TrEMBL record:
<keyword id="KW-0807">Transducer</keyword>
<feature type="transmembrane region" description="Helical">
    <location>
        <begin position="237"/>
        <end position="257"/>
    </location>
</feature>
<feature type="transmembrane region" description="Helical">
    <location>
        <begin position="59"/>
        <end position="80"/>
    </location>
</feature>
<dbReference type="Pfam" id="PF13853">
    <property type="entry name" value="7tm_4"/>
</dbReference>
<feature type="transmembrane region" description="Helical">
    <location>
        <begin position="100"/>
        <end position="118"/>
    </location>
</feature>
<keyword id="KW-1015">Disulfide bond</keyword>
<keyword id="KW-0325">Glycoprotein</keyword>
<keyword id="KW-0297">G-protein coupled receptor</keyword>
<dbReference type="GO" id="GO:0005886">
    <property type="term" value="C:plasma membrane"/>
</dbReference>
<keyword id="KW-1133">Transmembrane helix</keyword>
<dbReference type="InterPro" id="IPR000276">
    <property type="entry name" value="GPCR_Rhodpsn"/>
</dbReference>
<protein>
    <recommendedName>
        <fullName>Olfactory receptor</fullName>
    </recommendedName>
</protein>
<keyword id="KW-0812">Transmembrane</keyword>
<keyword id="KW-0472">Membrane</keyword>
<feature type="transmembrane region" description="Helical">
    <location>
        <begin position="23"/>
        <end position="47"/>
    </location>
</feature>
<dbReference type="InterPro" id="IPR000725">
    <property type="entry name" value="Olfact_rcpt"/>
</dbReference>
<dbReference type="InterPro" id="IPR052921">
    <property type="entry name" value="GPCR1_Superfamily_Member"/>
</dbReference>
Amino acid sequence: MGNNTYPPYFNLTMFVNIGTYRYPTFVLCLLLYALIVLANFLIIVVISQEKTLHEPMYFFIMCLSINSLYGSAGFFFRFLRDLLYDTHLISRSACFTQTYVIYSYASYELTILGIMAYDRYVAVCQPLHYHNKMTSKLVSKLVTFAWIYPAFSVGTCVYLASRLPLCGNKIPKVFCANWPIVKLSCISTVINNLVGMLVSTTTVFLPLAFVLYTYARIFLICRKRSSEFKAKVIQSCLPHIITFVNYSITVFCDVALSRIDLENLNPFLAVILSLEFVVIPPILNPLVYGLKLPEIRKLILKMLSGPKPDKQTKSHK
């Protein structure tokens, strides 16, 4: 096969020519990325340093923040560079690397949310057995599985895509993605499709179904309990529900976008819908958990306000 079947570069075609607005847009996106890094880093520091937060639920929240830093770095470093250039060519190796990072980030997010749903289920439905079930050993195993399986499964999809001979190099997105690359193939992609369906089922639909199942069980338990109990459950579970619903919507948008002809959409709308997937969860998650969970909120406010002056020092003044 000729070298043209393995193009050395891909062309990201969904960047809109914004002319003189490129620099304000770059500054705005850079500030957004800085906010993502700051907010998630703050959550990580607070949970890791405060011993009272060394519990499974907060450890999972910290994992979400680590994953947000990982995924946003895989997207923003390249995206910010592309905003300043007229051409949007990306090398073959860089494209497949970005594809791997972004989609492993997406899979990590869903598996972690699934584990968090199980944690909330045990806490609400089996509170007397919570500490016996959610041991540090089990938590370590769950988190390890949540990272290793997506890394392997997404890696398999990206590897199979990298082996395909391609009849083009145009990717109608603002970042590299697996399915648009597979659609460029000159040969049958039956194996890629089957593996992709298996990976999607195990890393997307099974975690989503499990979360829905656990919250159905929690809802049935709450129906029979007091208003005070319901209020405590809502306070504990609401951040996770918001995160789950938000991420489900962004995943749906990404899946829907990958199955339609983006070039027929309004270019600004196509770019905005593409950005939802990699921008909204990393910025929303730390805001939701930082504002909704009082234990984290108090510690963040305490950290931001700085140490209080000593009473003895005040009296001397």
